[in-house]
Amino acid sequence: MEPLQSLTEACEEKSSSPISSSSPARQYANNYYDPDLPHRDSEYDDLHVQYPSHVQRRLVTKIDFRVIPVLSILYLLAFLDRTNIANASIFGLQKELGLKTTQYNTALTIFFVPYIVFEIPSNILLKKLRPHVWLSTCMFLFGLVTICQGLVQNYSGLLATRFFLGLAETGMFPGSFYLIGMWYKRSEAQRRYSFFFGSTSLAGAFGGLLASAIGKMSGMRGYAGWRWIFILEGVLTTVVAILFFFVIPDFPENAKWLTDNERAYVKARLRKDQGRSAAERAIGIRDVINVFKDYKIFVGGFMYFGLIVPAYGYAFFAPGIIQTYGYSRIGTQLHSVPPWAASFTFAMIVAYFSDKFKHRFAFTLIPICLAIAGFGILITVHDNHHLEYAALFFVTMGTYSAMPVIVCWFTMNLGGHHRRAVGTAWQIGFGNIGGIIATYAFLPQDKPKFYKTGYSICISFICLSAASCVVYAVSILWQNRMREKQPTDLGLTEFEKTEKGDLSPDYRYLF
Questions:
Q1: CA distance 220 to 210
Q2: The whole model's pTM is what?
Q3: DSSP 208-253
Q4: Interatomic CA distance for residues 166 and 82, integer angstroms
């Protein structure tokens, strides 16, 4: 018999009779700590699931190594295949396909049409088909489309491949965030979310390095260098997708790589932190409608929407901006790497302190201010390329550090499978409308004017995000205080509380 099984049995025997006031056990809310149990540092709650603290840490580490690296690699390849068109453009994509005026911008835009529309249906399918099936299938498809993108011969072909790329990638980001949120407590999620989201920064850095190397293959087999960027990166994605079918984790309720005791403990700790999840019930149209009756859902969308504009504005146009500083094609690709690497490091620092202090609000505004400072420099300074290049560090560090905090803050404050699945997909889907704006923020005719229009647009939307964060913070603070004053025993059954999720009177939002 495993030691954890004996611990659980001991816990159940102990909990079979009420704990009296004279008992040596100490009560903390609905948690009980009993020094008479075999492990003096073990806890068990009213769900009768017990784990020694050192085993708890080992289990969380086990989850970390099984969940976070896989999803991070998945999204790294998704973001790489999505944004490598910027690197391809430097190596002659627009010239060979004969793109004129804003046709390149339109090709960027069409990606977001299916990407936005199918976010919520994708998360519903994710829950129905299980993550390892849905995410690996989508991954294989967008890798295949990326290969096809390297074979297009005209503008129409480019539009078609970009559309289907957006369709295949629609479930990657919201699905991964939703899945991570079903594994971790709110107080420990930020570092995991930021590491996952940091894969976008690593993709930017990795993409620049890959492009600088692959671009030298120009002429091989009669293909230009920009075609090889798409083909080789697409092949890499499809191969990894086949392997990931067997390693992408499912929800805790279905995780076969956990023992029965481990699975019970994971479900219990999440239930205590977030309430019951209602994982056993399918998501229906009524669930979707009920989610949108909460005004905070719309505020969460604007929080993310405001940062998507500068995020994609940089991702799609950074190589072009950096090239204006006088670097060669290869030099441009290499100089695109350091700002991305810096943003990953800074995001992890922000995440560490956000989890340490169990606070989110301030850690959205501080990086946002840094990004505003960066764009302010880019708008006003045009004769000092070193300072302009340094400003790109501020832009990436600020934008790509605030985004994971915002998404984690909003996602982890949504209680239950249904509200979290729909709410997360909504925030990501609505927010990505900003991607459409970003694709037209930096136009060729603005290049002689140092892209002042694009920088101004980015600052405006960053301020919108900051204002939305303030509104959201005030809203949840007010609701927490109102719930403290009101009685929690309103005659609601456990089923009704489960259905309400974070709207239950027992629920408290993380500020």
A1: 16
A2: 0.78
A3: HHHHHHHGGGTTGGG--HHHHHHHHHHHHHHHHHHHHTTTS---GG
A4: 8
